[in-house]
Every structure is written in C-alpha cells, then in structure tokens.
C-alpha cells in the first residue's frame, strides 16, 4: 500500500528512526553533575534557557494535567537527554519538533530524540505529563486547606515538572495555570494579561519571570486567595497572596514589608527583582521558604499565639534577605548552602538586634558555644554531611544557619565593619542573576579587605572545630558549654 499523506509518512519514519536509534544505544541510565551532596541531581550536556509550564488544576487530591516546554542549548553532542522528573506520568515527548522515545530510570526521565543533537544547537523539548500532589511529603507540591503551593527545596522541583533540577542552571520561567472558577492562581514574576473570568468556567492565569531563577525557587499557588497589592521603596510593586477569609487579620503584617525592604536596601543595595510579596498558605510545613519574589509562609506563624512580634518580623526579614542571598545570587553547589542561610540568618539576627529584643552579640556567642557540636553532628558549614536517605530537608541543620552566620560575624570582627559592608554589597552586586560559590566569596572578601583571607576563613568554613573568635578571647573557654 502506498502512503499518500506526507504527515503520516513523516510520523512513521520518525517512529522507525526511534526504534533504530534505541536498538544501537546502550540502556538508558540516570545521570548527574556530581554535586557533592546530590550526585545524581542535575544533568550534563545542555544549558536550560527557559521553561514554559502549563498546569490544569482540578482539586488537591487529583494529578494535574501539565505540559512542560524547555528551551535549551546543547553543550555537547547528545544522543540522549536526561531530565530530572518523578511523581508524574509522561504521555508523550518531542525534541525539536519530532517525537522522542522516553523512559524513566530512577528519578530521571531519559529522552531519545529521533536524531542526535549536535553540540551548540538549540533544544526545544515538549513533554505532556501529569503532576501528582499526592503521596510523598519530601517536597514539591504542598497540599493546603484550599488548594496547592510549592516547596521545591532542596531537590524537589522534579517532583512537579521535568527539569534540570540543580541551582547552577538558572533559567527564565513562564507559568500558565488553569484553575476552577472561584479560585486564584499565582506564580513567581509578573502577571500577563488579566484573565477573563467567566461564571462557572475555569480561568487560565499567566506569569513570567523577568530574571532567571533556579528550579528550587519556583512557586505556583492555587487557592481561595486574596491578592493584596501595594508599593515599596522606589515604586517597587508589592503583591501579597493570603487566604481570602483572613485578609483583614493579616494586613497588619503585610504592611511591614515596605519597611523591611528599605532596611535591607540600606545594608546591601537595591532589591534585585521585579516585585515582592509574601504567600501565606493554610498548611503546616515546619518551615518558611524564599521562593523567588513570593516567599512562602505558614499561616500559623502569623495567627498562632506564642510567637512574639519581633520574632515574626525577623523571620520575614530572613526570607526577604534570601532574595539577594540565594535567589539573585544562587549557590553553585548545594555545599554552598551556607552562603544562602548564613546570610539570611545574619540579617535576621541583625534586625532583631535593632529591635532591642535579642542582641547580635548574645546570639553569636550562644552559637559559638554550640558550634563544635553542630560541626560534629552535621559537618562544617561549607562541607555539610549529606542528609539521610529520604530526609532531604535534613540538610538544613544549625551549622548552615547560625553556624554560618557565625562565620560572617568572625569575618566582620577580623576585617572591620566598613570592609565587611563592602563585601556584602559587592557580593550581591557582582553576582546578581548568577551563581557563585564559597571560593568566589573568599576571593571577593580578600579583595575588599586588601589581603588574602584564605588562611583565616578556611578553618571557619571547613574545620571540624571552631576557631578562636577575633576580638573575643574570652569566648574560647565557653566552647562546648
């Protein structure tokens, strides 16, 4: 029988090509880029430039229908393309407009394109799949009382969508979220054209980032939410997302954000993104999270008794500080996490000190007393031990919070407040929208101090015991107390 349809002929030829390619290639395997803490995380051979993510939400008990579109560039010849993805079902995949074979291996989705991709050539990948919020509780979708939110740190974005799930590969994002009538969908970045709502009909909401973002910082929330808009320093658009029923109760907290931003800008320079706000979710997570431009907070932090006002504010400043330290300047590897959490903890502590509630020196001395114990339990701040299997959040230990802030305190004691302030401003200014690691920080601090700080910082960063604190010889005897 002769084939008369060019499209049918092309489809059959593509399928035949896939079968032939699969026959000569070895079995697919999970790959990684060798991150010290997550060796199978990330994938070699390409650089992602942009994600376009579409989600159709029904309820928080059902898988979402999703389409992930990835634009990337091959860095080397690729016969196969590995993506990180799990907790969803793939229906079909395309690479550069042609059907691609797909297989799941461990937590990788391995694509075999119809023809090999040459080095330096563009990659356009389309994957139709589901995204399942049920089951695993180690990151990804967070089920809320009225919908869903995301918490992708440390390596959980691939539980939501196929991606190169490592912070070193930042990209631009577009989100298209379809939700039932009566619900509101939000995501990182700025909204597209306002959705045209129709009674009893689903609505599609579109957002895009203006700056590149790591996969672990992506945020999508669907719920019965109110979007509260305001203005921050220099006309910065503010957008807070809160449970609609609690809007009035929460507004007194939302009004504090402009002052927090102004306080941070006085210390490190202009806010680095297109907008900012807090996302308050009706869920118990046990943490708050610095998702880019829209920080995730537990509802209970603002409504439950027992949290002093100064403490709540300092936590808000912690997540805001991450917009500079961790979001704009993103860690090169997960062992550089101390640069995120140490700086956020530093500004949290500095803010509390300014309120006269918990002095910085007291907090640092208390951290110093516990530092050796933290290092023994979890490793030094810049070389943390891997988290236990199935407990990825276990990476977030005291050593990378107060233990890392203690390094910054020691640095300021050693080089003086003026040079330290130059280090902070230069760090976020020179590495804006980029990735940087511990060695980069040591080099920059040495430059701003006018001398090599490598020998001084090395034991603070990597030592099994805590060095003497400059300017505080009396602290030495307190260690281990």
Alpha-carbon Rg, integer: 24 Å
- Integer tally of domains: 3
Structural classification: alpha+beta
List low-confidence stretches: 1-17, 477-481
The name CATH uses for the topology of the largest domain is: Immunoglobulin-like
What is the CATH first-level class name of the largest domain? Mainly Beta
Helix share bin: 25-40%
The biggest sheet, with number of strands, parallel, antiparallel or mixed sense and barrel status, is: 8 strands, mixed
Structure summary, number of beta strands: 21
Q: At the fourth CATH level, what is the homologous superfamily of the largest domain?
A: tricorn interacting facor f3 domain
What's the helix count?
11
Strand order of the largest sheet: 5-4-8-2-1-11-14-13
Q: What would CATH call the architecture of the largest domain?
A: Sandwich
Strand content: 15-25%
Mean pLDDT: 92
Given the C-alpha coordinates, what overall shape results? globular
Describe the structure.
With 481 residues, the chain is of the alpha+beta class. It has 3 domains: 15-220, tricorn interacting facor f3 domain (Immunoglobulin-like), CATH 2.60.40.1730; 224-323, Neutral Protease, domain 2; 330-478, Neutral Protease Domain 2 (Neutral Protease, domain 2, Orthogonal Bundle), CATH 1.10.390. Helix content is 30%, strand content 24%. The chain has helices at residues 6-24, 247-254, 257-268, 300-303, 309-322, 337-354, 360-378, 402-415, 417-430, 438-449, 454-462; strands at residues 46-56, 64-74, 81-84, 90-95, 98-99, 101-105, 108-112, 122-131, 140-143, 148-151, 172-179, 184-187, 190-191, 203-208, 220-223, 225-231, 237-243, 278-281, 295-298, 329-331, 434-436. The strands form 7 sheets. Strands 5-4-8-2-1-11-14-13 form an 8-stranded mixed sheet. A 3-stranded antiparallel sheet has the order 3-7-6. A two-stranded antiparallel sheet has the order 9-10. α9 (417-430) packs across α10. The model is unreliable at 1-17 and 477-481 (pLDDT under 50).
